[in-house]
Amino acid sequence: PIIREDNRIQEITSTEDLIFLASQVLDVNEIYHFDLLLGALVKWDRQQEAKQISQWTPILQRAYKLLMSGGSSRNGILDQLMATFLLDYAKLLIKRFPEEAQELNNLHLKMVQKDELQKGKWGYRNLQKLTIREKTNKKIKFPVHKQLLCRTLDLLESKEKPLPLLSTPTHTPMFIAPETLIERLKQYQQANAEPDDMDMQTALSRVALESSSQELPLLLRSLKGEYRHLLTFLLGEKDVLPQAPFNHPSWWMMAGLMKSPETIYAEFKDFSYNKSPREFLTGNFKWRTYQYTDSYTDYNKKTVEWICSTLTFDIPESENSHVINKDKYNERVSYYSYDPHPLLVEMYPQIERFDDIQNDLPRLAWLTPNIPEPLLVWCIRSAIYDPTLNEVREAGITQAAIEALHQLRHTWHEVSYLLEATCMLVADKTSRSYAAEIWIERVGQGCIDSGRIGSILSSHQHTGWGPLKRLTDLIQQQMINVSPLHNRELEKLIVAMLAGLPEKPVKDLKKLLEIYAELLSINHSKAEDEHVLHLLDAWKGVANLKKAAANIQR
Description:
It holds the Pfam family DUF7824. This is D-tyrosyl-tRNA(Tyr) deacylase. Residues 287-554 form the DUF7825 domain. Residues 4-277 form the DUF7824 domain. The protein has helices at 15-24, 33-44, 56-69, 77-96, 102-116, 143-157, 178-191, 197-206, 216-220, 225-235, 249-259, 279-282, 361-365, 373-383, 392-407, 414-423, 429-445, 450-462, 468-479, 484-499, 509-523, 530-539, 546-550; strands spanning 286-297, 303-314, 321-324, 332-335. By secondary structure, it is mostly helical. The strands form two sheets. A two-stranded antiparallel ribbon has the order 1-2. Strands 3-4 form a two-stranded antiparallel ribbon. α3 crosses α4 (77-96), α3 packs parallel to α5 (102-116) and α14 packs parallel to α16 (414-423). It is globular.
């Protein structure tokens, strides 16, 4: 189960805890610190005593340093957003405690002065006016987190008793126990207050869906109206259908995607989200690999040509989605939501450049842990499309993506399988090793379809996407002889892969056939797949494959 006692995130139970957490939030020690701090601030901010305010000075020094000189190699764009938010929070403390926060105020003035000297230069941050609420014409890099930070600031500034943030995780890595969400919503219900849309969507998408405790039906009764219908639908069995009223289509649509991305609920037919190509909501884009010829002219004015293989997704074009500079090196997708309340998953295609995303990627994936595919598509598109790429940027994004897949606990759909299989063939060795680890772990848990991975691998081999040697080495080093169960699954993977290969032998096929023969002998099984038997007959006629093909028991 996802919700257990040993993975409960330690609660912040005092103002001392709050300040200690704030002092390490920019270190990125834990994936959940960002969200935990927001929830803790809302709960404990008002209970701080005047004498504690000076303890915020070193925290703010870190925030200024990060903004002005870029922070450490572990920091991402999300940490810059957090640092900006902390500046806003410091202004709030200065207003509330003019005397005790004098030190904070002096620090701010000193930093603004330092920053003004940079005016007109690259490092200028305009600290004088910098705020998380800044209205900008530029595309915001991570709009969801920015919205959560703004929401937190609103709650901290409000005169009423602050209501809790809904999206704060309760269990590692970043899940919310259903009981806790019900408890939080009850407070909104009692205060007759409207939740923030993005906070609510994030909370719905972080709920642990498999924990159906006996008390849930009883707890759900304490909610009324739309809240009760919504959570009964999300947490109920697969056949539980949504019940009107649908006053907040974004919540319902998000709940539907979390519960079952492939199901189109007739009850939602009037929502404006249905006008968009559905792939943008589920991540289930059609993918393919193809070969093309590339060339360059060398210093002797001689043209050098070579064949490349590429993995691509077919992006459907419609009124709200366009491919700009199609098939060029700077191709990008322009997408916007039809609804004034965009869905969380609709934010992913709007991240224009994934270049500097690797430090933020795990935290982005945990915005929608039950349906990460819409994010993974853009990771593959930006860094895992070419089997020869092994630059720092691409390897970093590939590792971050496959590591996120390793931590997530969702039911896999096509793009998760595509990422897993493709990473077995990428140039980066660490990512290949991760992919093998994931396969070993999921086979042990009985929640992976090895045949599906084999089919994707054979499809890649048709166009030469990734040398087969990378896979055979990986099998020999990490995947074979883990356990009898793993050997049976590995046989399934190889059978599905062989069955999809072309008759013309691909490079390094001999090694794969030798591994297959070894597995048949270990598993005491026979080659029975008709496609495979047909291909083996064809390969017997190839000199260097003759022996390997003949060794396979029938």
